[in-house]
Amino acid sequence: MTHVVTESCIRCKYTDCVDVCPVDCFREGPNMLVIDPDECIDCAVCIPECPVNAIYAEEDVPADQIAFIKLNTELSQAPGWKSITKRKPAPDDADDWKDKSGKIAQLIR
Q1: Average pLDDT taken over every residue of the chain
Q2: Which of 16, 45, 100, 104 is 20 to 30 Å from 31 at the Cα level?
Protein backbone atom coordinates (compact mmCIF):
# COMPACT_ATOMS: atom_id res chain seq x y z
CA MET A 1 0.00 0.00 0.00
CA THR A 2 0.92 3.63 -0.38
CA HIS A 3 -0.43 7.00 0.57
CA VAL A 4 -2.20 9.33 -1.82
CA VAL A 5 -2.49 13.10 -2.09
CA THR A 6 -6.02 14.10 -3.08
CA GLU A 7 -7.82 17.11 -4.50
CA SER A 8 -7.63 19.18 -1.32
CA CYS A 9 -3.96 19.87 -2.07
CA ILE A 10 -4.66 21.58 -5.40
CA ARG A 11 -3.88 25.30 -5.20
CA CYS A 12 -2.96 24.95 -1.53
CA LYS A 13 0.29 23.02 -1.76
CA TYR A 14 1.18 23.27 1.88
CA THR A 15 4.45 21.42 2.30
CA ASP A 16 4.37 20.52 5.99
CA CYS A 17 4.21 16.85 4.97
CA VAL A 18 7.56 16.79 3.17
CA ASP A 19 9.52 17.70 6.30
CA VAL A 20 8.46 14.52 8.08
CA CYS A 21 8.75 12.05 5.20
CA PRO A 22 11.61 9.65 5.96
CA VAL A 23 12.00 8.50 2.35
CA ASP A 24 11.46 11.69 0.34
CA CYS A 25 8.53 10.32 -1.65
CA PHE A 26 6.82 13.65 -2.37
CA ARG A 27 6.94 15.23 -5.81
CA GLU A 28 6.11 18.86 -6.45
CA GLY A 29 4.09 20.13 -9.36
CA PRO A 30 3.08 23.67 -10.21
CA ASN A 31 0.13 23.77 -7.79
CA MET A 32 -0.01 20.49 -5.84
CA LEU A 33 2.08 17.69 -4.39
CA VAL A 34 1.83 13.97 -5.11
CA ILE A 35 3.33 10.88 -3.53
CA ASP A 36 5.48 8.49 -5.54
CA PRO A 37 4.00 5.06 -4.75
CA ASP A 38 7.30 3.36 -5.57
CA GLU A 39 9.03 5.35 -2.82
CA CYS A 40 6.31 5.53 -0.13
CA ILE A 41 6.85 3.09 2.74
CA ASP A 42 3.34 3.52 4.15
CA CYS A 43 4.57 5.03 7.42
CA ALA A 44 1.66 7.52 7.67
CA VAL A 45 3.65 10.28 9.38
CA CYS A 46 2.58 12.72 6.67
CA ILE A 47 -1.16 12.36 7.29
CA PRO A 48 -1.43 14.43 10.49
CA GLU A 49 0.93 17.07 9.09
CA CYS A 50 -1.35 18.05 6.21
CA PRO A 51 -3.38 21.14 7.23
CA VAL A 52 -6.05 20.44 4.57
CA ASN A 53 -6.42 16.69 5.18
CA ALA A 54 -5.39 15.85 1.61
CA ILE A 55 -3.40 12.68 2.37
CA TYR A 56 -4.94 9.24 2.80
CA ALA A 57 -3.78 5.67 2.96
CA GLU A 58 -4.67 4.17 -0.40
CA GLU A 59 -7.33 1.92 1.10
CA ASP A 60 -8.95 4.93 2.83
CA VAL A 61 -9.18 7.28 -0.17
CA PRO A 62 -12.77 8.57 -0.37
CA ALA A 63 -14.81 7.18 -3.26
CA ASP A 64 -14.97 10.56 -5.01
CA GLN A 65 -11.15 10.82 -4.89
CA ILE A 66 -10.22 7.36 -6.24
CA ALA A 67 -8.90 8.88 -9.49
CA PHE A 68 -6.12 10.47 -7.44
CA ILE A 69 -4.53 7.07 -6.84
CA LYS A 70 -3.72 6.81 -10.54
CA LEU A 71 -2.99 10.53 -10.77
CA ASN A 72 -0.33 10.34 -8.01
CA THR A 73 1.34 7.46 -9.84
CA GLU A 74 1.25 9.28 -13.17
CA LEU A 75 2.37 12.69 -11.98
CA SER A 76 5.11 11.36 -9.68
CA GLN A 77 6.84 10.15 -12.85
CA ALA A 78 6.01 13.17 -15.02
CA PRO A 79 8.80 15.40 -16.29
CA GLY A 80 9.07 18.52 -14.19
CA TRP A 81 7.55 16.94 -11.06
CA LYS A 82 10.68 16.86 -8.94
CA SER A 83 11.36 15.52 -5.47
CA ILE A 84 10.66 17.97 -2.68
CA THR A 85 12.36 17.37 0.66
CA LYS A 86 12.17 20.71 2.46
CA ARG A 87 9.18 22.74 3.51
CA LYS A 88 8.43 25.86 1.45
CA PRO A 89 5.99 28.69 2.00
CA ALA A 90 2.49 27.95 0.73
CA PRO A 91 1.18 29.96 -2.22
CA ASP A 92 -0.09 33.40 -1.24
CA ASP A 93 -3.70 32.43 -1.97
CA ALA A 94 -3.57 28.95 -0.37
CA ASP A 95 -5.95 29.90 2.44
CA ASP A 96 -8.48 31.09 -0.14
CA TRP A 97 -8.51 27.60 -1.71
CA LYS A 98 -8.17 25.29 1.28
CA ASP A 99 -11.90 24.78 1.91
CA LYS A 100 -12.99 24.60 -1.73
CA SER A 101 -13.98 21.37 -3.44
CA GLY A 102 -14.18 20.51 -7.12
CA LYS A 103 -10.67 21.81 -7.79
CA ILE A 104 -9.55 19.15 -10.29
CA ALA A 105 -10.00 21.63 -13.16
CA GLN A 106 -7.45 23.87 -11.40
CA LEU A 107 -4.71 21.19 -11.53
CA ILE A 108 -1.70 22.28 -13.56
CA ARG A 109 0.17 19.28 -14.90
Answers
A1: 97
A2: 45
